[in-house]
Amino acid sequence: MTQISTSTTSASTPELHWTCVCALGDILPGSGVCALVGGKQIAVFRVAGRVFALSNLDPFTNANVLSRGLTGSYTVDGQERFKVASPLLKHTFDLESGVCLSDASVRVPTYRVRVENDLPGTRVWIGDEWTGSAD
User: What is the average per-residue pLDDT within 61-86?
Assistant: First the structure.
């Protein structure tokens, strides 16, 4: 698990706090890693050229395991979406919304992500929890 304490406030949206968690190259394509941000375990996934972040806590088992889950895709109304399957009970969660695909009443928190290409390399930053509201 990566634990980084460096945080910053975005100049464009000063109310958001961002924490650099790793280099993009630290996350193998199609897989996830776990980062400790503000005392919370965050699962960070790199899938199809995109980066997603959600709580590492599987709500069905109360185990911090989602970062070790298998990633995949599914289609909704002709749109490809991405998911992760918990390694324990195999419940699947949408990587963007956090909604459980087998029980829509269950959702894991998702987090804002930004990827910045600066020297010495490309870094992944995790922001505040995403509530679905526009900022």
Answer: 98
pLDDT of residue 131: 73
Local structure of residue 106 (DSSP, 8 states) = -
- CA–CA gap between residue 31 and residue 27 (Å, rounded): 7
pLDDT at 8 over 70: no
For 32, other C-beta atoms within 10 Å of its C-beta total 25
Report helix, strand or coil for 16.
coil
Contact in structure between 19 and 38 (CB atoms under 8 Å): yes
| CA-closest candidate to residue 65, choices 95, 30, 90 | 90
Whether 73 contacts 48, CB under 8 Å: yes
| Number of H-type helices and E-type strands within the chain | 0, 13
Residue 46: phi and psi, rounded to 5, are -120, 110
Contact 66, 84 (CB under 8 A): yes
List the beta bridge partners of residue 41: 36
126 vs 119 pLDDT, higher one: 126
- pTM of the shown model: 0.84
